[in-house]
Every structure is written in structure tokens, then in C-alpha cells.
């Protein structure tokens, strides 16, 4: 998949195709923003929040899987909160020892393939399954469209965070 720096514009596309294109676009943006950073830069925080670029990347990998696989499909996944210390959703982001940029970027794009499959085979009005992230007692689970909007805003927000982190790390700016 080419890492396009051009925002998708599919005026006549179905909404699910728009979501797919934008999610692919933001995965590529995140990949590009981290490209060329040293391992030390990836593992060092220059922000008051304390997170590192690599911690943000692992968050995005887990976040997308939480919403589409564990959430929408209702499939059980190992460590759905694995981006947080001790699998605690309120804990800080963490990267397991020995895991680096290449492995996480590959996981980001592999997760994207799964998301594309979900969007190609389900209607946006379909509600998430009960039994994964959502329990029957939680009330009516969200629609796939709502999940897409949520995940898209997560990517957009965190791509902006990476803009700042990258500029502070080495002065690089831009898309």
C-alpha cells in the first residue's frame, strides 16, 4: 500500500469506502510521521503528558483492534488493553520490552486489513456484537458507523499529537 500524503476525496464513494480510505490515510500519516526517528527519539517523551511516540503508536494499534475486532465483531482478543500498563484502561500507555517501530507499524497495517474486511462485509447501520467489548447489560451497542467516526477521530487527534512530538524531537514538520 503506498503511503499517500494526499487526503482521500471520493465524492461518489459509499460511506464505508470513505471510512476505509480515511482510516488507510491516517495509518499512513502515522507511519510517515514516525519514519526516520531514531529508536531513542521514539522511546523518549518531550511532552508534559509523558507519553513517547512509540507508546502512542502501540495505543493506535490496540485502539483500532479494540473497536473493530473486540468491539464490533465481538471476538475475544488477547490483552485488549495491552497498550496500557497492567492491561488497565486507566493506566499509562506502555510498549512491551523489545517491541519497536517496525513491529508496531506492521501491526498497525495488519489491523487495517482486518478493518477493511469488516467495512467491506458489514452495513454501517449494523450494531456491534454483544459478548466482546459490549455486554448485554450495557444497553444497545453502537453502530459500525459510530465506531468508524470514533476511530477516525482517534487517528486524527493522535496524528496531531505526533506532529508536535516529531517537531520537538528533531524539528521535522509537515504531513
From TrEMBL:
InterPro entries: DinB/YfiT-like, MST-like. SUPFAM superfamilies: DinB/YfiT-like putative metalloenzymes. Pfam families: MST. This is DinB family protein.
